[in-house]
Amino acid sequence: MSRKRENVRQCKVIRQLIDDNKYTKALELIDAIPLEEVGSLDDLYRYAELYEKAERMDKKKEIFYHIYHRTHSRYMLNRLLRLTIRMGDMEEARELYFAYEVAGPITLDTFELRYLLAKAEGEPPERLIQILEELKKEEYTEEWGFRLACLYEKTGQIDKCIQECKDLKLWFGEGKIVDRAMQLLEHCENPAVAEPEELEETIEKEMPERREEYESSETEEIEEEPQENEDVDEASESYGEIVREPETESEEEEEVLDPEAPLIESVGEVKVVAKRKKEKPLQKPENVEELLEEKEEDISDHGILYRTLKSAMNHVRYGDKMPHFVFAGGEERIVLAVAKRVAKELNKVGYVSVRSIVKITAEKLNQIDLSEQAGKIAGGCMLVTDASELTRESVEKLKTVMEQEDEKVVVMLAGPFDEMDCFLDIYPDLAEKLVYKVRM
Prior knowledge:
single chain; Rossmann fold; five-stranded parallel β-sheet; 20 helices
C-alpha cells in the first residue's frame, strides 16, 4: 500500500475515532501523520478542534498556519490572529495584524481585530472607544454598539452612553443585547438600578451555522488513489459535534494577494507582500466589478425598468434627482458590498456628506417612527433589507423622509427579486421615488 493510500486510510480511522469520542487514540494517530499529507481541510479543522479540547493550543496554531499556507485565505489569517491573541502572544499577534491589514481593504473585521488586539495589549479605554467609534462609521452592529456604550459608561461619558443605548433601541428594536442596553440606560439615569452584565469577550469567532462556500483554493483536496476492497469514499461525511465548518471572510475584497506569494512564510514569521492582482471573474456575480459590466436593461412582468449597476452609476453622476436605490435579488453580502460602493461614490459626487451606511431590516423599521429619527441619519445612506415586508405605514413615512430637502437621506431597499418587483408594483408612488432600480 502506497504512503498516500495509507494516509487516506488513517484519516478515515481518525474520523471514526472522533465520532466514537475516542479522542486520546485519535490524537495519537494525528500526532503521527504529517499535516501536508492530510488532504481534507475539514479533517484539519477537526484536528485543530481536538487539540483545543486537549488544551494543546500550540498544535492548534500549527494547523492554522498550515491551512493558511495551503489556502492563502484572509479568513484563515483572521482566525489565526484571534487564536494568537487568545494565547497571549502579543508580538506575534501584532505581526499577524499588520499582515492582515495589508492583505485587503479595511472592513468591519479589521476594526474588530484592531479592538481585540488593543484590549489584549492593555490599551486605555479612550483608545478602545476611538476604535469602536471608527467601527461604527463603517457598519453599525448591536454587539459593538453595546460595547461602545459600556465603555462610555466606564469612562464617565454618561450622556454619550445614554445616546448610544437609545440608538441601539432605535435601530435594532428588540433582542437580548437591546434589553441589556435598556438596562444600562436605566442604570445611567438611576444608579440604584443594577448594571447589566457585559458581553463575553469571544476572541476566536464561533463558526456560524450558515456556511459560505470556500474559495476554490480552499476546497482543493489531495487526490485519492483508487483502492481495491477498501471503502475510502466517505471524506465528505458529517463529522459530529466538534466540527465547526469554515466560512469565507464576510466582506467584499476588491483585490486579493497573489496566491504564489503568501504573507506568512513560517510559524511566527510574517512577510508583507505588496504585489497584488485582481481577482479572476467568476461565472456568477460574486463581486461589485462584475455587476458594473455593461448589460442590457430589462423590464419585469410588472412593467418596472431595471438598470445595470454601471448604468445606474452613470446616471447618478449626471442626473438631477435624489438618487434612491432598489437592489433586487442577489445575496445579502453582495448587496451590502454594492451598497457600500455606491455610498462612497455618492459621497464623492456630493450627494451625501458621510460614506457610512445604516443597515436595518424591514421588520425593525416597522417598529420605529422613522420620521422622528431622520435627523440622526441625515447626510448618509440607509439600507433596508427584506424591504418587501415594509408595512403601508412605514412606506408612507419612508416617502416623507425621501421628500425632505433639509435632511437628505439616500434610501436603498433590498430583497429577493420577485418579492421586490411585486412590492414596487403595489406602491407605485414609492417606486417612482426610487429612481435607480438595479437587478442584481
